[in-house]
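Submission sheet (multi-component)
Chains listed below:
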Amino acid sequence: MPSRGSTIWRILGPQIFVCLGGAAAALADPAPPLSPTNIFAPASTPAKSIFGLSLFVLSVTGAIFLIVFGLLLYSIVKFRRRKNDDGREPPQVYGSNQVELAWTVIPVLIVVALFMATARVIATIQKAAQPDNAIAVVAIGHQFWWEYRYPALGVVTANELHVPVSDDSHPTPTFIKLLSADTDHSFWIPRLGGKTDLIPNHPNSMWIDPHETGLYLGQCAQYCGTQHAKMLLRVYVQSQDDFARWIQEQRQPAIIGSAVSQGQRIFETTACINCHAVAGTVANGRFGPDLTHLMSRDTIAAGAASNTPENLRQWILNPAVIKPGSLMPAMQLSDPELDALTAYLETLR
Amino acid sequence: MSTESIAWPSTGAASPTFVDHLHEWVTTVDHKRLGILYIIYALVFLVIGGVEATVMRIQLIRPHYDFVSPQVFNRMFTMHGTTMIFFVAMPVLFGFANYLIPLMIGARDMAFPRLNAFGFWMTAFGGLLLYFSLVGANGLYGAGNAPDVGWFAYAPLTARTFSVGHSTDFWTLSLLVSGFGSISTAINIVTTVFCMRCPGMTLSKMPLYAWLNLIMAGLVILAVSPLTAAQIMLLLDRYLGAHFFDTQAGGSAVIWMHFFWIFGHPEVYVLVLPAFAFASEIIPVFSRKAIFGYPVMVGATVAIGFISMSVWAHHMFTVGMGANANTFFVISTMAIAVPTGIKIFNWLGTMWGGKILFKTPMLFCIAFLFQFLTAGLTGVMLSAAPFDWQLGNSYFVVAHFHYVIVGGILFCLFGAFYYWFPKMSGKMYNEALGKLHFWLFLIGFHLTFDFMHVPGLLGMPRRIYTYEPGRGWDTWNLIVTIGVFFQAAGILVFIGNLLWSYYRGKTAGSDPWDAWTLEWSTNSPPPAYNFAVIPTVKSRRPLWDLKHPDDPDWKYE
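Outcome: structure written.
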């Protein structure tokens, strides 16, 4: 955490871990992971800064909770009407300026402390400058899938974002520009950072620098229409070498053998190409995901199904089975046409 | 003070028929009858909104369940939110305000009785309009449908491109219509409190109930107006080619968010201040002590009123406002915790040294104190913007605001129902059933909303009709859904208790709680004119003065 050296953290840092409630501590334990989307298992600088702040806030609010809860409980037990009550009214007390002053000033001081800690983290995350070696990605939200473009690297892909790991020897953060093609969406990978919305006519940005390789999950966090629930996010954090290899592969045009020309003809003469692109062919639609390297992806339908031939065939036949409300139409193809088309798509590696 | 009763104005027939009764209720301008109309209307919608919530919870009981389609689920959460805020919470709180404020300040009616009736019927027709969308939105052919844009209806999902048919029009028109009703009622409350108080009742001797509702009404005027304006703009967008929020023609989605939340956040205080008002009447009576720190309570309420107008964009920490704007809304939001905390401490001070009697109304208010404490503290967590980047729009937020609205407002409201039921009906409720309701609802509430925080911390966003297995969310969602059935059972006991007590309950008498405010000085139920003689008061607790002539309040205030 970059803000570790500040006074407030030096003073309050140790207390955080002392005061931490049991529940939060259990959630904070990343191994075994309670959930692949646990916000208390951060793996990137923004997520870690937020985690540090959240522990501080949790410890302060937890302490307040225990004290006030205790006072309330004490008062209702201590001052309950007893069985042998004499029926007389208790002494009437109308207030006390000293007490009022105390329980006004103390909360004000707590608020000031919480505010200062919060303002620091806001600045740390939101005012971070983009270094020259950062990977620049443009993420475009669509109903109901994600488009990713790497303008400097000449790569366009969908639904599965690949980024390099960023360790101390090779700090390679990824800066993501967030755009929307239609309605509001929100980009949220809990272990890598907080969410940022994708709003039409309102470009946003965020950054992540994952410290460990692996697959990080998330999903759209702003209601965007019928299939908001199956607009899943997958971020593949790769070693520098693996990432460079992936980029190299993605830059190639589609390699198409003659064995699947039947399927390619169906693809290019039906409505498929209105929405989908396959680089190096006549297909250049942009409404749906780019399919040039479809088979390099683990999932289809924005993470709703794994990328198997059966699922692919089902998806083309009737998308509503996998994802009702998806904007992909059922293509009304015959069985031989489906087989040929699926065989063609299977070659897009 | 009044002992005789006067019959309702007769319609001429010897014994009034059902139609006569109906005519009386439909044409009434009496604040008590309008109050009861508001309350019954809200209870009907509470059941409808509850059924919608139950449908959602059954759908989420396990991952990839297909109890309802995504389309139906999206309509359910839109209708649930809209219904509960606009057609349950606001009407029921207006109903109590209508009924109680004139009685508490020693007046014979609201300042504008006919405006009062107008306000109720506008709200009522707004609710009917919303639900007519079920058959009317796509016409009667094919599937009629309800709005599915979420209760805050973010642009551009409401644009005609993304919301075809008329479901969004029903949503926007119903809020437009009921908005006029709310504003007229708010004007009425403000005028009544300022102009109709009985002799001797200065502002500083007014019951806290009237004070808090005064601030609430001021907030309604300030907050509902921008919402109404935004609805008109949305209609212009949809039908006359305006481009306020139409992003495809250069409009701004963010402007809608600002319009909505400049309404939406003060709205939270519109709902919670009347709940505070109930607690501020009930807790002293069942602790047998005067409210602790009355001037500070008033000051804190006024402070909440002002600060609440400057916190709206904490709903927008994730929309990319920039570091400086985010920082401003962090401090304004955190600041509101101070006056709110002062209120909790003053209720604690009221109970301290008292003799607490655990009748049903007090049980609900005590649970409110604990739950509102928790809700306030999760609110502080959400006010720390970076923490909100993780928690915002997740189930943690859903749990947080249900803790406020159910754990805070609804618990106080149940307390108010039991506390004033004897006054409104003249009958005593059944204490055993009341306690059964309390415990069932308490267990259900905590099963549902305590455990609902956890999937939010584990990355579950709100408004998803289903979720993936393997995310660690399954068990939590199961527990949350189980809690719903306890709550539903509690509600059934509650409604059964009201009905049973109304027909079979013991006569309550004018002052069953040995209370101190003016409504307990007249008959139960009060006559149409409320007071035979307009009372004169010398302190905040006129009935205490009457009962303790040797030790009256006015010597100390």
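Remark: The radius of gyration of chain B is 23 Å.
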